């Protein structure tokens, strides 16, 4: 069974940096895409970034391009989201998710980690 556990959230000031981690377990992820999503109060969950486990191909939402970087450490089965130049509007619960590379729908989700950016 796939398990995704996020960590690294917290309270930071605007302009600060934060790194989120997602520890993945339960299977070999070579045919998976791992992604980060976020949901702010009153908003729908939105895509942030994704990375294909084998090729390392990345994709980003326009709102985070140039500020956030997604990466993975294959040996540790961990995906990271480095967030720089944080803005107030980055405040949200951040979720790690996984999907099979040939399927559009993310089937596996973590419990989420809160990121709060203050002025």
- N→C terminal distance: 40 Å
Question: How is the main sheet built?
Answer: 7 strands, mixed
Number of helices: 0
> What is the typical, i.e. mean, pLDDT?
96
Word description of this protein:
- The relative contact order is 0.32.
- It is built from no helices and 11 strands.
- With about 120 residues, it is an all-beta fold.
Could you give a quick summary of the protein structure above?
The protein has no helices and eleven strands. The protein has strands at 3-7, 10-13, 18-25, 32-39, 46-52, 58-60, 68-73, 78-83, 92-100, 108-109, 113-118.
Annotate the secondary structure layout.
Blueprint (H helix, E strand, L loop, with lengths): L2 E5 L2 E4 L4 E8 L6 E8 L6 E7 L5 E3 L7 E6 L4 E6 L8 E9 L7 E2 L3 E6 L1
């Amino acid at each position: 069974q796939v398990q995704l556990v996020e960590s690294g959230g917290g309270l930071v000031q605007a302009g600060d940096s934060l790194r989120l981690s997602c520890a993945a377990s339960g299977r070999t992820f070579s045919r998976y895409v791992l992604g980060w999503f976020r949901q702010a109060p009153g908003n729908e969950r939105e895509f942030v970034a994704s990375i294909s486990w084998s090729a390392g191909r990345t994709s980003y939402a326009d709102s985070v391009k140039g500020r956030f970087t997604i990466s993975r450490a294959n040996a540790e089965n961990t995906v990271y989201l480095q967030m720089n130049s944080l803005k107030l509007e980055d405040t949200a619960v951040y979720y790690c998710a996984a999907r099979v590379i040939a399927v559009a729908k993310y089937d596996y989700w973590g419990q989420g980690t809160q990121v709060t950016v203050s002025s």
